[in-house]
Amino acid sequence: MEGAKDASSREGHHCGGCHSEENGKFLNPTPMLNELESGPWPSFVSGFKELAERTKKPMLRGVLDQLEYSYNTKMGYWKGGLVTVDGYGAGVITRYSMIKDKIPEAAEFHTMRIQPAPGLHYNTAMMRELCDIWEKYGSGIITLHGQTGDIMLQGIEEKYVQQCFDELNEAGWDLGGAGAGMRTAVSCIGPGRCENACYDNLNLHLKALKHFVGVLHRPEWNYKLKFKFSGCPNDCTNAIMRSDLAVIGTWKDAIQIDRDEVTAWVEKKGMDALVNQVINLCPTRAISLKEGEMHIETRDCVRCMHCLNAMPKALSPGKERGISLLMGGKNTLKVGVNMGSLIIPFMKMESDEDVEAFIEQIETIIEWWEDAGLDHERIGETIERVGLKQFIEGAGIEADINMVSRPRDNPYFKAPY
Amino acid sequence: MSSPERKWKTIESGPHTYEEALHPVVRKNYGKWKYHEIPKPGVLMHVAESGDAIYTVRAGTPRQDTVDMVRLLCDVADKYADGHLRFTVRNNVEFLTPNKENIEPMIQELESLGFPVGGTGMCVSSVSHTQGWLHCDIPATDASGVVKSMMDSLYEEFKDMKMPNKVRLSTSCCSINCGGQADIAIVVKHTRPPRVNHDHLAMVCELPKAVARCPVAAIRPTVVNGKRSLMVDEAKCICCGACFGACPAMEINHPEHSKFAIWVGGKNSNARSKPSTMSIVAHNLPNNPPRWPEVNEVVGKILNAYKEGGRPWERVGEWINRIGWKRFFEETGLTFDDNMIDSYRHARTTFNQSAHVRF
């Protein structure tokens, strides 16, 4: 293969110590990666190179050399291991290089997962402090954010992990989840800025994750369990697909209509737009015109959000707000993509008691899963294998027609009579 | 690894607290927002019941950032947004300010620093993606590089709002697809069954765990040179790489045996149609660093056809539902083949169980 040949011909650069500082540059040549410095989109390669030239951290030179080597050979060269901090069993993703004989400077390149504030809000003082601690102990590479929602501090040697964690922890940060336990959660911006937030997802996120912090740091379940908290059915955190426990805001009563704003909207966009882009796109045909006025039949509305998205000034969610809980969302591994499905149609989420009742319900669900689930089985897979009926029995949840798109279409069940 | 002189006692605090991170105008109007408008691409205006307005300027980032880059963003936040910033789930950074006059200078400064302002409304937003060769242990490619190349081509679409509806993209470095479901997803696939490292295996693997991990039951216990090991039924193996996670002796990484696939029609929002999963529409595309032009070309074809044919508010999957898959393939110039017929569990749910035909 041409790439591999090319890489091996340049191995001279990677003999440990014989780098190219003589030409005034700290970094070794990385012609493949340099191709990713052109073009208008911000370049991660330029960022890494600038950081390396400023800090002169050998680990950064090593990791750029290894990445360049990967671009040439089309192979990854990291293997896992076990690094953690005192008292925790998760949160540091361990990476040792498989080619440290060629590129010794990146022999260790561990990641510390850090839990951000719900809604990914920062002030610059906390962000700068995080950067300063990270630069002191680690590479200075930081991913905002990882796919599970963590701040990923990428590139630290094992010997600095504990000290780095201690300083971060003193500044109010804690490690994120990994392995077969509770994972870091994600929230949308919620009531912080969005008019459609149907509950205080930032508050629920913080309280639920604090409650489960023990099993986040010391995983002991069948497999991972993820929460995501979306303020409304637009589901900006992708909770339905990316979380085992998708907490999605909703409301029970009628959509609130500001008649004057409806009129203003029609004046601006035209009657065609009202018909073609709002009424005709309602999935349950809940909207009609009555004597020229927009009418929403609440009993037909499924709270899909479309009309609210199209007319944000004229329409708002109802006043009786709360959450729906969907469960079982996950991607490919092991038995294929699973979309979350509705388990609890509505729970109020206003008072501390509501939050406590929610956490108690989740505790019962997890107890069932610990008992019924197999090793490396996500809760959605357990529910599918064992049966939704059996799950709700075990979790003490009453059957509700909203849990299914329709009743069963086959007669294969054991009648209780 | 604990050092005896360690002085700090761990506080298991969980997520960082958020109240101090919220802009004062956000704290004042928390939960009391009335409506929002998008005055121009990259800028949002949210108005509260109190009459207060807060403006958001949104910009793209490379996601694989550095402390230097984050400090630059903090400088912008200190200068224009009272020391507050936040990120979106698509790796965009947001600055909130009640001062309308801060918007234009902030946009100019972000652009001059190389952060494109956009990512709002009916646009192609930035890509949710995975770690790749930089950090993953089973990557067949480098998502960051694919994303950079793709967003260079889609730069104007990120900065504008000319799509029928928002387009969300994802990129993944193996078929486990940690990048997730999206309107258009770029997913690389290993294409050769794992080579079993028999010398290594007994030391690093629990055999039953590796056997159980396989989605198609292609792994069986065996004995090699008197030692317990595993064998792979290569006719059954779909090269997903899942066994590597349980057993690193199932060596899946290979320099030549990987190809890209493109998937379309994933949607998590409940707006209009129910959330939907993606379908494969192109595969066997070369894994061609550093800029993956073949992948870029297919994504471009799909986006052009969608931009041309989609009606207002239709997401990619909804557009296809209206025009039908046959026309989708015609209009994008892609080719349907028998590998695109599902053959796994629940495959029947993807068959056309009707006499509805398009000619």
Automatic annotation (TrEMBL), chain B:
Coiled coil region boundaries: none
What's a GO biological-process term for it? sulfate assimilation
> What's the cofactor?
[4Fe-4S] cluster; siroheme
**GO cellular component terms given for this protein:** sulfite reductase complex (NADPH)
| Pfam families, A to Z | NIR_SIR, NIR_SIR_ferr
User: Which of UniProt's keywords are assigned here?
Assistant: 4Fe-4S, Iron, Iron-sulfur, Metal-binding, Oxidoreductase
InterPro entries the record matches: 4Fe4S_Fe-S-bd (IPR017896), 4Fe4S_Fe_S_CS (IPR017900), DsrB (IPR011808), NiRdtase/SiRdtase_haem-b_fer (IPR005117), Nit/Sulf_reduc_fer-like_dom_sf (IPR036136), NO2/SO3_Rdtase_4Fe4S_dom (IPR006067), NO2/SO3_Rdtase_4Fe4S_prot (IPR045169), NO2/SO3_Rdtase_4Fe4S_sf (IPR045854)
Where is the 4Fe-4S ferredoxin-type domain positioned along the sequence?
A: 228-257
- GO molecular-function terms, A-Z: 4 iron, 4 sulfur cluster binding; dissimilatory sulfite reductase (NADH) activity; electron transfer activity; heme binding; metal ion binding; sulfite reductase (ferredoxin) activity; sulfite reductase activity
Record EC number: 1.8.99.5
Which SUPFAM superfamilies does the entry mention?
Answer: 4Fe-4S ferredoxins, Nitrite and sulphite reductase 4Fe-4S domain-like, Nitrite/Sulfite reductase N-terminal domain-like
| Protein name, UniProt field | Sulfite reductase, dissimilatory-type beta subunit
Organism (species): Chlorobium limicola (strain DSM 245 / NBRC 103803 / 6330)
